[in-house]
Write a structure and sequence with these properties.
Layout: H1 2-11, H2 19-93, H3 97-150
Length: about 150
């Protein structure tokens, strides 16, 4: 048995440690990790730039919509004020009570019609503004979602 165990010990080879292979493997691992980090950073940077552009576009669109609504509000207020003053002038020129009632009835009917028209215009403008303001963010979100599906 002694001879058999000595013979087995002589035939067993133990792996040797090769520092050059280990260094090469570590270098490959480090290069691969650096490349993955660069790719992740590039994706993050691209996403941040896309988000920034979407936010800037959203704010610009919101500013434009706000200006348009403000101008429309001023025009409506001016038209309503002018109609009110014209009505007052007509009332002061009325000669009979029945003429006053007729003028007042006509004024109230026209004012109600004008209010309905103005309300529709404001509704249309605000709906358009909401759609326009949300579009850049929606597009950026959909783009990011499609990129995630591709990756």
């Amino acid at each position: 048995m002694n001879q058999a165990s000595a013979h087995t010990a002589e035939t067993i080879e133990f792996p040797t440690f090769d520092a050059a292979k280990t260094t090469d493997q570590f270098r490959v691992f480090a290069e691969h990790s650096a490349e993955q980090s660069k790719q992740a950073y590039a994706k993050f940077k691209s996403g941040a730039e896309t988000a920034q552009k979407a936010i800037e576009s959203t704010f610009e669109t919101a500013r434009e919509a706000s200006t348009e609504l403000s101008l429309k509000s001023l025009a409506a207020a001016r038209a309503n004020a002018e109609a009110g003053f014209a009505h007052l002038e007509a009332l002061f020129g009325a000669r009979t009570f029945s003429e006053v009632i007729e003028l007042q009835t006509s004024f109230v009917r026209k004012a109600a019609e004008q209010a309905a028209v103005q309300a529709k215009e404001f509704q249309s403008l605000t709906s358009k503004a909401a759609t326009d303001v949300s579009k850049p963010i929606k597009d950026a979100f959909e783009s990011s979602l499609s990129e995630l599906k591709l990756a």
